[in-house]
Amino acid sequence: MSKVKHGLKEGFTTGSSATAAAMSALRVRLGGTAPKQIEIPLPVKGTLNIPVERVEKTDGCVRGVVIKDGGDDPDATHGKEIHALVEIIAGDELQVNISGGKGVGTVTLPGLPVAVGEPAINPVPRKQIIAGILKELSESDPDFCGTVKVCIEVPEGKIIAENTMNARLGILGGISILGTQGIVRPFSHASWKASIAQALNVSRASGLDNIVFTTGRRSERFYMEHHAGTSEINMVQAADFFKFSMQQATLKKFSKVRWSLFIGKLVKHAMGFPYTHAKDWAINFPQLSDWCAELGISTELTKEIRTANTARQVFDMIPVENKKEYLKMLTGKARANAIAFSGNKELDVEYFLFDFDGSLIHQPGD
């Protein structure tokens, strides 16, 4: 794979892995030699050479195996085997049938780009696999007639899926075959944004009109511990994507949004940061100090706040008698920014703030 800026290595998607596995299996099924690498079509434009781990003949079928490579942006499928079992059925017309086998999840909830009951092979990878099969036929057997059956399998898919959000999205029994570009570009935000949008689609298709955004697994867990009746479908891990998540909430026509987070993210929401990762958006402590001064906090303390290192440090510095007012001020500013980002003045937004031990230290009405 190629290098990108800062010397980071690009990878390829599960869709590209499945395409390479299917093409290599078909080549051997048509009498060719098992390739060490194969050139696959990319979903948008261009091609990509992908290493082939092995090709095996079995019971009239041929199995191609590719090792998924996420480059320097590895995910749960990085380093795992993606299989394609290829079978040819005689016939008078050229057809390509794609199915999912072991380790590929089945869609059980509406709102995803794949219909309920179908294997979780997204439309773009499905088209990519078909394009790859047609490319291989054009080069190996231009006069071919019949049906090429391709079954995608991921032997460890069921285990891998336990480390993903698939079950919550209604994808059961394995992973999804994904990839809109075919290439994984290191540290791209596109995949996380896509997962947020997809989770909102599932929630909306399930009839929900409210959503709970969290900044990670802990803030999600703490919220659910305090709100035991909340369905997992209501919960969406938005991470650092504050503005994008609010825009999507409006786009998907939600009427109420709750945020579950910790003090650092709350301060960044209050400051109106569209993206809250520490690497890109640092807290403005002089501004936070000025806000504290407006609450009547002593000049001596506000001077210390100007040179603080973390939002948690500032929170611990705030006198007990001022803490409630301090948090009310932060959540008020955060709520105003959330509504502004959403573009919907009628959207109902609430904030729930947790301490690191899971205790709820601020909620609506405090």
Automatic annotation (TrEMBL):
<keyword id="KW-0169">Cobalamin biosynthesis</keyword>
<keyword id="KW-0489">Methyltransferase</keyword>
<dbReference type="InterPro" id="IPR036074">
    <property type="entry name" value="CbiD_sf"/>
</dbReference>
<dbReference type="GO" id="GO:0043780">
    <property type="term" value="F:cobalt-precorrin-5B C1-methyltransferase activity"/>
</dbReference>
<dbReference type="InterPro" id="IPR002748">
    <property type="entry name" value="CbiD"/>
</dbReference>
<comment type="pathway">
    <text>Cofactor biosynthesis; adenosylcobalamin biosynthesis; cob(II)yrinate a,c-diamide from sirohydrochlorin (anaerobic route): step 6/10.</text>
</comment>
<dbReference type="GO" id="GO:0019251">
    <property type="term" value="P:anaerobic cobalamin biosynthetic process"/>
</dbReference>
<comment type="similarity">
    <text>Belongs to the CbiD family.</text>
</comment>
<dbReference type="GO" id="GO:0032259">
    <property type="term" value="P:methylation"/>
</dbReference>
<protein>
    <recommendedName>
        <fullName>Cobalt-precorrin-5B C(1)-methyltransferase</fullName>
        <ecNumber>2.1.1.195</ecNumber>
    </recommendedName>
</protein>
<dbReference type="Pfam" id="PF01888">
    <property type="entry name" value="CbiD"/>
</dbReference>
<keyword id="KW-0949">S-adenosyl-L-methionine</keyword>
<keyword id="KW-0808">Transferase</keyword>
